[in-house]
Amino acid sequence: MESEIASEHLPFLRIYKDGRIERLTGTEIIPASLDATNDVVSKDVVYSPEHNLSVRLFLPHKSTELAAGDTKKLPLLIYIHGGAWIIESPFSPVYHNYLTEIVKSANCVAVSIQYRRAPEDPVPAAYEDSWSAIQWIFSHSGGSGPEDWINEYADFGRVFIAGDSAGGNISHHMAMRAGKEKLEPRIKGIAVVHPAFWGTDPVDEHDVQDRDMRSGIADVWEKIASPNSVNGTDDPLFNVLGSESDFSEMGCEKVLVAVAGKDVFVRQGLGYAAKLKKSGWGGDVEVVEEEEEGHCFHLLTPDSKNAPKFLKKLVEFIIG
User: Fold this and answer.
1) Cα-Cα-Cα-Cα dihedral sign, residues 161, 167, 169, 170
2) Which residues of the chain have pLDDT under 50?
3) CATH code of the domain containing 71
4) Which of 41, 157, 244, 275 has the fewest beta carbons closer than 10 A?
5) Count: domains in the chain
6) Active site residue 295
């Protein structure tokens, strides 16, 4: 007999009184493959035996066919998936397929990071794991790391971090930590896509005013993703725009901020770009806005007319 439901947090999960957690979406898995599906090969590699976490590596198939000694180094994309810190993984069809398209179009190496998720492992576990994965990836910068694909093909002079939603949030914090800890080689750029930044109060008169919607987002953060946050949604990890953090220490050369006009996070994303431009950080900030689209439209409706346009922009950011 099925146990009773303790709480329900749609559309993400149910928590049962016996402690069982049922994720309602983002659980499907597609296997990695050394067959050149869409001209890209992939494989999974454990980077954290302690937490049983892997990265999924993607490589253009033609790179593996180069003659010995004829290896051409490729840009390296580190990708951090979204899903409200609760659902999804690098192995889900939506992320596997999207990374495949990026790698094919940009002719780059990609490393998609798995991290521990709430509520079993609440924030800051996702941030700690993402940084751990970045350190593991950068252990290959001298060409003698544990994974041959990264050693042979990744150009550490052209490293990019990208993420959407919660992954966009994490990407910002990874670039900040890279700056503070002086990660070498330096990250070339980060793409912060529809970032999940929030706060207790609206950032301006155009931000979400609806109390039910604001409290719904607060509930996801305070009850599931980060129940240990002292300041709730004003936790500096979530309230990036309202925090006292000094953006001038951002550890990369350029930032692409992508927002969608019908996304609940749009005003936060635009405010983030404005704060970054005023921070004294010496890099370049580019803002891309699709006014008629919603949150993560390029992933949820990849056949929409604006999805290929955004993919093109992201590819240009990586290879430009």
Assistant:
1) negative
2) 1
3) 3.40.50.1820
4) 244
5) 1
6) yes
